[in-house]
Inverse folding.
């Protein structure tokens, strides 16, 4: 993301995983106030942790004072293994969470994702709920409703979608959100990748996070 991004490798469930960590300004935040895990879009369609939306989410959480961690899913970059349709990716994200909690214990956890990454993070939240250790809150951009079997998410989840998304149509997201009574923030004129609209994602997450 910038010169201060730390790249590191962890042992995943199917081999090594390439990760990145961005930390908040030490002058403003003596220690990170939380951990944010960011999940990238579909690896079989060019998705990586350096995707612009994933990087924008990381910037938003760094601005909020969180240590923002990303990983390349299986088979992407230096990460080993092969795509596992969200199952293994959720396993790996749980491993990254454990690693980050060892590094920064006793702080809140945020889960954020873009496109396929929203499916992974919603599944991870289900696992955390089952253990009674849920994430503080979720921020899901380009939610994967209709593409993958998205589970229900908490009522305070921040959902951001592009009006002109032709990869995951807005109607699919509304159909998924409606029974849960979840508000969806629609960015007018935005496509799936939020070209020229990325600043709205960061601004919305920062403004809404503590509401």
């Amino acid at each position: 993301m910038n010169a201060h991004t730390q790249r590191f490798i962890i042992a995943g469930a199917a081999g090594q995983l390439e990760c990145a960590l961005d930390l908040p300004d030490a002058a403003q935040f003596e220690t990170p106030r939380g951990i944010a895990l960011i999940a990238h879009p579909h690896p079989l369609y060019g998705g990586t942790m350096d995707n612009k939306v994933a990087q924008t989410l990381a910037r938003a959480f760094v601005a909020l004072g969180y240590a923002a961690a990303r990983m390349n899913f299986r088979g992407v970059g230096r990460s080993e293994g092969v795509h596992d349709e969200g199952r293994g990716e959720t396993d790996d994200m749980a491993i990254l969470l454990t690693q980050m909690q060892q590094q920064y214990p006793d702080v809140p956890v945020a889960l954020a994702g873009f496109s396929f990454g929203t499916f992974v993070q919603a599944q991870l939240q289900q696992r955390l709920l089952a253990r009674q250790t849920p994430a503080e809150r979720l921020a899901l951009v380009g939610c994967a409703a209709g593409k993958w079997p998205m589970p229900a998410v908490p009522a305070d989840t921040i959902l951001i979608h592009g009006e002109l998304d032709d990869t995951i149509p807005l109607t699919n997201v509304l159909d998924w959100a409606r029974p849960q009574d979840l508000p969806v923030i629609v960015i007018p004129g935005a496509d799936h990748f939020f070209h020229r609209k990325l600043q709205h994602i960061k601004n919305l997450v920062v403004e809404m996070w503590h509401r």
Q: What stands out?
A: The two ends are 27 Å apart (CA to CA). The chain has five helices and eight strands. The chain has one domain: 6-208. Helices lie at 52-63, 87-103, 116-130, 170-177, 198-208.
